[in-house]
Amino acid sequence: MSANRRDFMKTGAAALGASLLTPYAGFASPLERNGAPLFSLATNDAGEYVLPPLPYAYDALEPYIDAQTMRLHHDIHHNGYVKGLNSALAAMKTAREAGDYDLIDRLAQKAAFHGSGHILHTVFWQNMISADKSGNPSGLLKRQLEKDFGGVAPFIQQFTATAKKVEGSGWGILAWEPLGRRLVVLQAEKHQNLTQWGAIPLLVIDVWEHAYYLTYQNKRGDYVDNFMNIVNWEDVAQRLEHAMS
């Protein structure tokens, strides 16, 4: 292998891992707290994942998402995924050291479930903003929505319809699919299912009942429709630009 190719493999892989496969990296404001990029807060000194802070107050998304739901969702549910992921990884480490892989299938499932939940929730918080700051898709994002969906309105219709019809619990996702270099709308039931490998989440909506039940009860459709009032389109645009690069 040539020196140039070795250099590319080292730097290119590192850049890909940092820029595309983490929900934190590569962004300035609003993915920054106290002058430090949130990527630096993704793990602690022990290498364990940590719960990211909300980028706004608990009541910032009212009336569309209430403060009590945000507290429970972020502080309890999301934190549960962080703890579950760390627990699964620690158990895998113990299994490797003991050479005991009898439970590896169970641990792999736990890591996939909790890891996917942690990553998607991290994107989810950043995807939202108070309604007065939401705005509309513009620039590159708007052009790509027009190219791949025929316009912003047809995209929103497809995205909301997809989210409303997730079977059981899961997510609606707008993602960049780098192989075809196009935007796609996906369902992700139970986090890790029904997705496309390599697709990079740009805009996600959590349709597990804990995300909306206190305000909307069983009216998922109303919650999904109202979610579109608090989309942080600037965040989605930044993620698209970064993914495409």
- Tell me about the largest β-sheet: 3 strands, antiparallel
Level-2 CATH architecture of the largest domain: 3-Layer(bab) Sandwich
- The CATH topology of the largest domain corresponds to minor pseudopilin epsh fold
Q: Distance N terminus to C terminus?
A: 26 Å
Per CATH, the class of the largest domain reads Alpha Beta
Q: What is the global morphology?
A: globular
Fraction of residues in helices?
A: 40-55%
Count the beta strands: 5
Structural class: mainly alpha
Percentage of β-strand residues: 5-15%
Could you tell me the mean pLDDT? Answer: 85
Q: Number of DSSP helices? A: 8
Domain count: the total is: 2
List the helices and strands in order.
HEEHHHHEEEHHH
CATH superfamily descriptor of the largest domain: Iron/manganese superoxide dismutase, C-terminal domain
